[in-house]
Design goal:
single chain, alpha+beta, seven-stranded antiparallel beta sheet, 5 helices, globular
């Protein structure tokens, strides 16, 4: 129980522990019950990825990853920040208040070298979130920086009404989009590791950093940027054309002094037992980074099925919301729950042995609002505090 990967929602109070190393093929994972501090943690982290990939047949992995075997880059150039505001985004009512200007950031991520958009710039547009939340990233292609091709691989512009927050036209100025299409990418949705495990594409890696400017009130203005410095990360030994993999252990965040006492106590307890969190990042030939989550093919299939149902439910909800606002119905239905991205969660059916304790196993220490987090790495827990009750994943 020393290395982990990505887990999300809280389901059960358990922890996982490796019974053997990963110098060869993937071994079984022992399940243990933690006496003093209960949390579910994957034994697989960036170290697992490094050791597993090193011991695996790289030539086999190259054949399994689409478009990476001796492939020529799809883009020319490197990830570069654009100094000008391209004006791709609309301004919401809440952003239109006097004295507030959202900080939106743009990057060029290479020039397309082939296909329908050969010679077009690939632009990454980061939109500042409205209120608490994460920034939203969009990818577009352009010849003149006046009109753009919007990348919409999931069909969100058609699946969701424009009043839905999941439709890109909630944020993007529709008058500047000449076409919606699915743009090519060097980073596949899934990177298989073997028949049991795979990496699943999450999102562009963004960090919040000082912009170097100050507000009229004297406050330092922060902005969202694509992470480009990986000097503190460890390169993972997967020698596949076009892709570079990195791993890192992120230390816990500092506890703000202004936090209330109960929140500080909880944070200190977490800090005592959680050394940090792991992260795996995949860069394409331009240096554009995406985070990936370690998972299993079955989890990916289940997620895709659940997401289709979620989309249908979201469309239905939006129609009902409009009816509710028009006073055609008296009660607004509950908003559908978005499925969590694939990770290493498992169920009682996956547990081998006589110690079945729970129905579902997932992270028990989610962060604020239950947002997606990298898997915690546990510390200050002795082996004799753990009770083996079964195995999973092999």
């Amino acid at each position: 129980m020393r290395k982990g990967f990505r887990f999300r929602t809280s389901f059960a109070e358990v922890a996982t522990k490796a019974e053997q190393g990963f110098s060869g093929q993937v071994g079984g994972v022992g399940l243990v019950l933690l006496v003093a501090f209960v949390a579910i943690v994957s034994v697989f982290g960036y170290k697992f990825g490094k050791e597993f990939i090193r011991s695996s047949r790289v030539s086999t992995l190259q054949k399994m990853i689409p478009g990476t075997q001796s492939a020529a880059p799809l883009f020319q150039g490197t990830l570069t920040r654009i100094s000008e505001d391209l004006g791709l985004f609309t301004t919401t009512d809440s952003e239109g208040i006097e004295g507030y200007t959202p900080v939106n950031v743009y990057y060029q991520a290479g020039i397309f070298t082939k296909g329908s958009y050969k010679g077009y710039e690939r632009i990454i547009a980061l939109r500042e979130p409205v209120g608490p939340g994460s920034p939203v990233a969009f990818i577009v292609a352009t010849k003149d920086r006046k009109t753009y091709i919007l990348d919409d691989p999931t069909g969100a512009t058609k699946r969701f009404p424009e009043t839905d927050w999941q439709n890109p036209f909630q944020y993007i100025d529709k008058t500047k989009i000449s076409k919606v299409d699915e743009l090519v990418s060097e980073q596949p949705e899934t990177i298989p590791l073997d028949s049991s495990f795979a990496l699943y594409k999450d999102s562009i890696l963004i960090q919040n950093a000082p912009s170097g400017t100050y507000s009229p009130e004297g406050y330092e203005v922060y902005e969202n940027r694509i992470r480009t410095d990986f000097s503190s990360y460890e390169k993972l030994p997967l020698d596949v054309s076009l892709l570079t993999l990195y791993g890192v252990i992120n230390p816990p965040s500092e506890i703000p002094e202004e936090w209330e006492e109960d929140a500080r106590v909880q944070a200190q307890l977490r800090e005592k037992y959680v050394k940090g969190t792991t992260e795996v990042v995949v860069l394409d030939s331009t240096g554009l980074p995406y985070s990936y989550t370690l998972t299993r093919p079955r989890e990916i299939s289940d997620y895709e099925d659940k997401y289709k149902k979620y989309v249908d439910a979201s469309v239905k909800f939006e129609k009902e919301r409009i009816r509710f606002e028009n006073k055609e119905i008296k009660e607004l239905p509950d908003y559908p729950m978005m499925p969590s991205l694939p990770n290493l969660r498992f169920t009682k059916k996956d547990v081998k042995g006589a110690g079945e304790l729970f129905t579902d196993y997932d992270i028990a220490v989610p962060y604020i609002c239950g947002i997606d987090v990298d898997t915690p790495i546990i510390q200050n827990i002795a082996d004799d505090e753990l009770i083996l009750f079964g195995t999973a994943f092999g």
